[in-house]
Amino acid sequence: MTERYDEGMKTRRRILGDAHVDRAEAQKEELDLAFQQLITEGAWGTVWSSDGISDRERSMLTLALLAALGNFDEIPMHVRATRRTGASPQDIAEALQHVAIYAGVPRANHALKLVKATLKEMETEDD
């Protein structure tokens, strides 16, 4: 693998936690190896590894973008990541206010439903 991949994997583990990454790695197959390399290098090794903004800000942006674009499946994972990024439930709520105004109330409303359910689950989960 590349240096960017190694950096991406390090960042991915820091943000999502070893347990999540280990589960994802165990599910890799030949079919998605290139895709996994792409997201590890691009998303985690480039974007999330940048020191241009804080992890907290990046979490807020990511959740807002996922909601605005209707990519709801990834919202719970990124809500769980806020344990490590420092984005608070209030930060998430603020980001979703922007989604409501700039991308639509239904998307923000659905995202908020997912956020609330995930935060409730997190109250009883071990890290």
UniProtKB/TrEMBL annotation:
Extract one GO molecular function annotation from the record: peroxiredoxin activity
Listed name of the protein: 4-carboxymuconolactone decarboxylase
Q: Which UniProt keywords apply?
A: Lyase
Which NCBIfam families is this protein grouped with? decarb_PcaC (TIGR02425)
Q: What Pfam families is this protein classified in?
A: CMD (PF02627)
Q: What is its EC number?
A: 4.1.1.44
Q: Which gene encodes it?
A: pcaC
Return the SUPFAM superfamilies for the record.
AhpD-like
Q: Check the record and name the InterPro entries matching this protein.
A: 4CMD/NDH-1_regulator, AhpD-like, CMD-like, Decarb_PcaC
Every copy of the Carboxymuconolactone decarboxylase-like domain together lies at 35-116
Species in which this protein is naturally found: Histidinibacterium aquaticum
